[in-house]
Amino acid sequence: MTKNAIISVKNLVKKFGNFTANDNLNFEVHEGEIFGFLGANGAGKTTAVRILSGLSAPTSGEVIVAGFNARKQPEQIKKNIGYMCQKFSLYEDLTVKENIMLYGGIYGMNKKLIRERTDSLLKRLNFEEYGDRLILDLPLGLKQKLAFSVAVLHQPKIVFLDEPTGGVDPVTRRQFWEMIYETAAGGITVFVTTHYMDEAEYCDRVSIMSEGKIVALDTPAELKKQYNVGSVEEVFIKIARP
Amino acid sequence: MKKVVESSGLCKRFGGTEALKSISFGVNENEIFGFIGPDGAGKTTLFRIITTLLLPDEGELKVLGLDCKTGFKELRRNIGYMPGRFSLYQDLSVEENLSFYATVFGTTVKENYDLISDIYSHIEPFKKRLAGKLSGGMKQKLALSCALIHKPALLVLDEPTTGVDAVSRSEFWEMLRKLRHHNITIIVSTPYMDEAMRCDRVALIQEGQILSVDRPETIRDGFSRKLFSIKAPEKHKLINALRSCPGISSVYPFGDSVHVTFKDDNFDNAIYEYLENSGISDVSISETRAGIEDRFLELMGTHLH
Amino acid sequence: MKRFLGFVKKEFLHIFRDVRTMIILFGIPAAQILLFGFVVSTDLKNAQVAFLDLSRDEMTQKISDKICSSGFFRRGETLLNFDDVDKALRGNKIKAVIVFEKNFGRKLISEGEADISIIADGSEPNMATLTTNYLTAIIADFNRELAGTSAAATMLIQPEVRMFYNPSLKGQFMFVPGVITLIMILICALMTSITITREKEFGTMEVLLVSPLKPIQIILGKVIPYFMLSFVDVIMILLLSWLVFGLPVKGSLILLLAESMLYILMSLSIGILISTVSSNMQQAILISLVGMMLPSVLLSGFIFPIENMPEVYGWISAILPPRYFIVIIKNIMIKGTGFLFVWKETLILMVFTAVAIGLSIKNFKIRLQ
After folding, report:
1. Could you say which residues from 202 to 221 on chain C have a Cβ atom under 8 Å away from some Cβ of chain B?
2. Which of B291, C49, C83, C121 is deepest in the core (most CB within 10 A)?
3. What ipTM describes this predicted complex?
4. Quick check: B108 contacting C, CB < 8 Å?
5. DSSP letter, residue C148
6. pTM for this entry
């Protein structure tokens, strides 16, 4: 695996008034890896992800995402990332194709390219007969898979996933993770935030945040070895609460 | 043993979709009974029928010895219910929420304090804070205290751990275990397989059908095949190679490894060579014990496809 | 009973804790009364009128002086021929042009009749109606004076009915009843429907239904706080309009308050009815605003007189409760009439209340659907 840093965070601090949400974060995410970003409720995950995706400026520190500075070039960052969260992803009252068309348009892709990628996407998901169905009528698992495909439609350098497989059945969840592996193998970095630890086990490396700081960062196997436990969940319970 | 909930052939339709297809199960007194299944499996519908909020289209359901259709008035006094979204008044304080639910059920906080003290003591320091300003874990504890305040005989918890971090979830399960000393039967649902092992007995539920009801260990041990765990650094390549490998019957990614079963359970050393020829190095293979999720996958395969 | 009181207490906590609810409850009514009273007043003050006097005699001079000294109108330009009329009105400053025919004075004295035309800017219908009404009233007044001093025969038009009850031509007299009517339906229907659907949306309704609370206790628990606060509102509005605008209640205050209670009760029942048919707050707000508020503003006779509406709108207005309450409140407040004059409207409101309560009880489910 190449070790080029696609995300590089140095001394990141984010304050809201007196409250320090991110307290001197330092980490790198490598190109093409699946990076799990874990933490208890209120540990500062959301704040950090907002900064990484160009939605909010850091108070101090240097954040480089996909080659762009988060403070000075947030618009450039937004063009080079994809985003999918569990709650909002696709417009329920539009059809599958209309949704794809819309997102392609938002990222400035031309019609021909959108159509090509739509076809290959639907084919890959065995979705051809669903193209003209409303999102509303799709089962949850299909929606999630489609939402992910749409998030990487414009082939961003990084895709941010927020609790991507919450509540889906075990088979669909595995299909979903296979899609993530495939995406990562294709060179797109996958950044997953979740508080479900079994999801963390699928990642190449995970970081655990607590009270605004990163308290652990390694491969799941290494973390388990280090804390001498059987699962990332146990690691988490040991260190995520002060 | 006395059954707290007894269901046979329960069906519920919404328009054209069948939410529950002939559900039968029984819950014993004083146990923690879990419904494990993905969103849309019918867990919430079933819970609403148990709590008398919905009527079944077909089938029988007895809760605490009463019929769910005719005995709803009596039942509503004796059930504690925590719906999927924590049903708290965001604009009332912790204390006000609790005492409101106590009055509604005709009791006082004082009267049943010993029942909730274990749980409530975690949030009591914040009792003046508005419920809307609590963290997920604290909301969960408050909602549980509110559902318990009238000392119900049956506690029904719909996805109490969804959206809550791992530490809070772990604490939550500890609290449920302690409640058993108070003679409260608990029915709980969750989409997360790993929580199944925390229950006394579980029902695996998928697309409105129960796949299996038993003790979680028994369900897990019902896995009928020899299971192997295969690891390699390039997971994507590994999965694709295993899929096209002739001797293999099932391939599922599982955390940092891939769980594999062989046709007729014949482990074949040729797999090493096969993978190496596919360009995959650093392969490690070991036989492993199936988890409840492996069993769920197996059951899903036989039931639905 | 303790359960029920606990529930009512909780409702009061919701209301007093939410700044927005408090503003809707007390801020908006006060603001509305003051706003309508001061700004949207329908009084004319110094509206410019132009004269095209083809006669130029003593009589036309007297009439135009009377118009311009009334305080309502100010003398604009003097026109020379009919071509200027259009130009003058297009300029937007002139609200109306008054045309005296040739030999106006002589004709009036010799034939007892002379023609005067009022040409108003119809692109502002309200203003135009108002202007012409005031002008005809002034001319009629002049006519009466004339009849008193000389033997001249009657001419021109009779005074406008509205002023009969509102002699000082105060616009506030018209608006206060209207505002009370609207505010009550807004607060009662909108707020109750929101507060019930909010429980549905946040999932707390599920727990309430599973509790031993009876549906009637839930409904009454929601209604009582708003009933009390709305009543306080009515008193506040009446006090405000009395203190600020000097608007007295001519008829029986007790009757007025009793009728207000009935109207509040009816609006609350409609609010509950709305909440039983909507599954979330958005729907409830939409139904209350578009379904109740808008037609009430437009069709209840508050702004546009019902007599002037096309027939169809008249029918629609017949099923809008505010229409009847406006009649009741105007009668009591401005005309000072007693119950005998409003019993029909009162009865209609009672029927509305009964129907709304009946439908809500039928619709309120003890289970989810």
Report:
1. 202-204, 206-213
2. C49
3. 0.84
4. no
5. H
6. 0.80
